[in-house]
Amino acid sequence: EAQVTQNPRYLITVTGKKLTVTCSQNMNHEYMSWYRQDPGLGLRQIYYSMNVEVTDKGDVPEGYKVSRKEKRNFPLILESPSPNQTSLYFCASSLSSGVGAQYFGPGTRLLVL
Amino acid sequence: GQQVMQIPQYQHVQEGEDFTTYCNSSTTLSNIQWYKQRPGGHPVFLIQLVKSGEVKKQKRLTFQFGEAKKNSSLHITATQTTDVGTYFCAGDYNFNKFYFGSGTKLNVKP
What we know:
Chain A is mainly β.
């Protein structure tokens, strides 16, 4: 089944404790992206990747890191989480940059205390 | 920075009434996508519009892209309870970076 998976789905952590949210897609998509969703703000793009080893900042990259060592995986790293990073995070992928549907993962709900 | 404005924020309709949500950008878009998100779910792609003045239909849904490629709308004819959810537009300025509108939450009363 074609899908985007994210882990964990729920996470409660404390300020400053490094964490990684994994994202994997099995559709051989070139383009992958991370978004955060906050009430009243819609989805905001954090980072995106147009292909392996090619990543770039989205609209709200501060406090986040990403890597794209393999085509299927695009982990999101919070090196020192802060409470303002409490949010719902979505990973998405599409065949190519800016073209066609973005397929979203189920989301990761993060609470930073 | 770039921004896509979306209105209204909420819309409550009686089943069978029509619904429209609008998106507007101050600068020209490369393309615009529309998504639907059910409560507790993830965004699901509906359509992408690329050409100036483009109109596309999917059953009761009609999508339009303005002539100047700065605005777009989604119109649902004769809403049903299955249409409940939040509808987002996502504007793309250079084929790689997306700016989502804040969404229109649609509630349909049976």
